[in-house]
Amino acid sequence: MRWSRKRKSATRTILLRLPVLFLFWIAMLTLSAAPAEKHLSVYSTAANYSLPLEQLDGRDYVGLFELLDPLGTVSVRSDPPRWRIHYNNVLAEFVVGKSRARIQGRDAELTGRFLLDNGRGLVPVDSLSSLLPRFLGGPAALHEASGRLFIGSVATHFTAAVSPGDSSRLVFHFTAPVNPTVATEPGKLHLTFHHEPVMAPASPRLTFNSKSISSADYSEGNGAAEITVSSAFPLIANFSADGRTITLSPAKSQLLANSTQTSSPAPAHAAEPATAPVTNVPTASHAAQLATQPSVPSSASIQRKYFAIVDASHGGLDRGEALSATLVEKDVTVALARRLRQELESRGISTLILRDSDANLSLDDRAFYANSAHAAIYIAVHAASNGQGVRIYTAMLPYAVGDDHGPFLQWSTAQSNAISLSQETAVSIASEMKKLQVPVRTLAAPLRPLNNVLTAAIAVEVAPPASDITALTAPDYQQLIAGAVANGIVDIRSQLGAAP
Questions:
Q1: CB-based contacts of 93: which residues, under 8 Å, 6+ apart?
Q2: SS3 412
Q3: Predicted local confidence at residue 297, as pLDDT
Q4: 331: three-class secondary structure by DSSP
Q5: Disulfide engineering: 216 pairs with which of 27, 99, 206, 339, CB 3.0-4.6 Å?
Q6: Pairing relationship of beta strands 74-79 and 82-87 according to DSSP bridges
Q7: Could you report the per-residue pLDDT of 130-169, keeping only the tens digit for each?
Q8: In whole angstroms, what is the distance from residue 52 CA to residue 63 CA?
Q9: What is the pLDDT of residue 119?
Q10: Which range has the worst mean pLDDT, 158-167, 387-396, 430-439?
Q11: Rounded to an integer, what distance in angstroms lies between the CA atom of residue 337 and that of residue 195?
Q12: 412 in Cβ contact with 482 (< 8 Å)
């Protein structure tokens, strides 16, 4: 009888819980069915960045201020129902609820109503192709279905061909450096381009005269481009030093299997999936960005050998210095870091950006990733509103150095063995700045994480050339500074490369 009472009690408990369980599963199904947040990826000569899209009135909307801010000087005045925006020398006025705007005194048609959300001016995404040229004075090509916007002639094109001497190898050539994420599944390898303006070839499907690699398919979606390669066996991706060539070749396990089959034929079996090869993530910036992307390098990406690590300071909740009412340091440093990577890679120096998105990274995290990568040099990028030109910092170590024991180094003085090389690098870069008549100073300061980095480490702080703070976002000025830093590193490259 005791057993039957317990059973009746248990049955009652289950019956009472059924409605709760039913509601729980309904909630789980609702959450799993929620659509992923949509984004618009913007590519331009000034910056590459990503913005969230909002679904309103049955269409996609984007913030106009957020879209134009990385491209130039922007100010906004909201006086509902009117909303005015001043971009460089262009003045525009929008009216809430209206599908017509005034830009430089002339009418501009929108594809939907202009909306205001807590002071943010929102325009329909499908209006951008006709709206942006009025602001920018140049073309803007919108790929609406995939959420990709190309401003000016920035597209990166590619070709793909099977290696003439080995039909199991597929070689991609790109017109500019790329750094895609890489993922594998049985029979396929995916190259996903979140940050680069990679464009479709003449045909979205490329086929190859190879029994090993049959095709490569190009597609776009939610702010990214992807190339999917179909193959008969697992592949790995190998990157050239300049980032313009990616070679896909059989995974090591497949080469061993082929070797075994050659010497002693064995029954056929299913190919084992390959582990994901090199993956690079930023980050890493836009500028204040990319919320959709991983914020720090994965362990796989760090396994790839880089000569330089560029670190955009601040990020996430750490905005850095408020350079102006609308400009914060964390956004400028991402743009500068990307420009510097481009300059370094154009000179044959493989470069990883440590923060290439709007991510929170502690100083210890930055040093950890820099040390794990074993690069020849670490470059932290800062921006400032005070002063003019560039300040180059090296570490200021505590006085008591030499307490390290055995293979272990003190975290606060890890830079001690590389401090001389860091100072020589600073002098080399300063020399290039002087050639361009850029005001420059070299200083030592207790600026973390320089003390914690094992290899040559410097911080480059960029101030405007004169009193106009908006020059920090000017492409010409950023290019000038990044080029001088890159030239300084090239001049001392042999010494950096020879360092342990």
A1: 82, 83, 84, 101, 102
A2: helix
A3: 56
A4: helix
A5: 206
A6: antiparallel
A7: 899 999 988 889 999 899 999 988 889 999 999 888 889 9
A8: 9
A9: 87
A10: 158-167
A11: 13
A12: no
C-alpha 464/C-alpha 455 separation (Å) is 29
H/E segment holding residue 205: strand 205-207
| 61, pLDDT greater than 60 | yes
d(CA 280, CA 361): 17
C-alpha span between 437 and 107 (Å, rounded): 45
- Residue identified by tokens 């003439």 is 164
pLDDT above 50: residue 20: no
Strand order across the 205-207 sheet: 181-185, 188-193, 224-231, 213-221, 205-207
Instruction: Take residue 25 and report the two structure tokens written for it.
Output: 């599963």
Question: What pLDDT is stored for residue 2 in this prediction?
Answer: 30
φ, ψ of residue 191 in degrees (nearest 5): -110, 115
pLDDT band at 225 (very low <50, low <70, confident <90, very high): very high
User: If one looks up domain 158-251 in CATH, what number appears?
Assistant: 2.60.40.3470
Q: Where are the beta strands (DSSP E) in 251-383?
A: 308-312, 351-353, 377-383
CA distance 487 to 344: 8
Query: In the chain, what are the helix, strand and coil shares in percent, each to the nearest 5?
Result: 30, 30, 35
Q: CA nearest 189: which of 224, 215, 166, 163?
A: 215
Sequential DSSP letters for 367-401: HHHHHHHT-SEEEEEEE-SSSSSEEEEEE---S--
Q: Which residues, 6 or more positions from 124, have their beta carbon under 8 angstroms from its beta carbon?
A: 59, 60, 61, 110, 111, 112
Backbone angles phi, psi at 392, to 5 degrees: -115, 120
CA-based diameter of the chain, in Å?
A: 98
Across the chain, mean pLDDT equals 81
pLDDT tens column, 448-495: 899 999 999 999 999 999 878 889 999 889 999 999 999 999 999 999
Q: pLDDT value at position 326?
A: 83
Q: Are 213 and 65 in contact (CB under 8 A)?
A: no
Domain ranges in the chain are: 54-146, 158-251, 299-399+408-498
H-state helical runs in 264-318: 299-303
pLDDT of residue 399: 53
Q: 299-399+408-498: same fold as 158-251?
A: no
- Edge-to-edge strand list for the sheet holding 158-163: 158-163, 166-174, 245-250, 235-239
CATH for 54-146 (3.30.70.360, 3.30.457.10, 3.40.50.300, 3.40.50.150): 3.30.457.10
The closest of 288, 299, 480, 447 to 380, measured between CA atoms, is: 447
Q: Are 319 and 359 in contact (CB under 8 A)?
A: no
